[in-house]
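EI: anyone free to look at a 235-residue chain?
SC: sure, send it
EI:
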Amino acid sequence: MAFDPTKQTAASLLGRLKGKLIVSCQADRGDPMDHAETIIRLAAAVLRGGAEGLRAEGAERIRAFRALSPAPILGMAKTWDAQGEVYITPTFALARDVNDAGADMIALDCTRRRLSEAEPWPEMVKRIQIELQRPVLGDIASLEDGIMAEEAGVDAIATTLYGYTAETAGKRSFNWDLLEALVARLRIPVFAEGHIEQPEEVQRALKLGAHAVVVGSAITRPEKITARFVAATRL
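SC: here you go
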């Protein structure tokens, strides 16, 4: 078999992340945390706390995180449509920017809704792996998405977009049934991501077969963390 440097990179990277916690260090537009130096300090703090990797959005912040640490970075770029729906790295030009900034793996929206776009994601998967020599993390929302992503050749998938597509809109808790179905059906690593709130849930995800766990808001969003505690005062 011919040597495939992309797959070699993927195997090495995935080996480092197996059984580990990855922290997504982002802030929504308009959030008080949406400040470059603040996000860099946040990334430094979670790495000191033991996070094995970072998930980062946008070339500027990926570049800053790379200067901060050699820890694996799952990079992406976000765009929004006129209805406010979010898309993860929808074009190859954005994928190249993410790659050039220093991402180790490029996250890509691999849901059914993007199959009819000008740059369908199955074609982008191959271009990223061949032209950029980077592994691809397929962000999905359903078992069907996961199956399609594996068939398209992604190196791993993440349950990131459950709750953010038309079919799953409004879902704001982790879908354990989806994780179990993906682990049982697919041969590629499955990252548990989205709506994980407690350390016990990280442990549960790993026991169910998740390759790694990505946590964001429960660690990095003071506004949302505070709101959870405030809700507990409303007896």
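EI: Residues 145 and 174 are 17 Å apart (CA to CA).
SC: 👍
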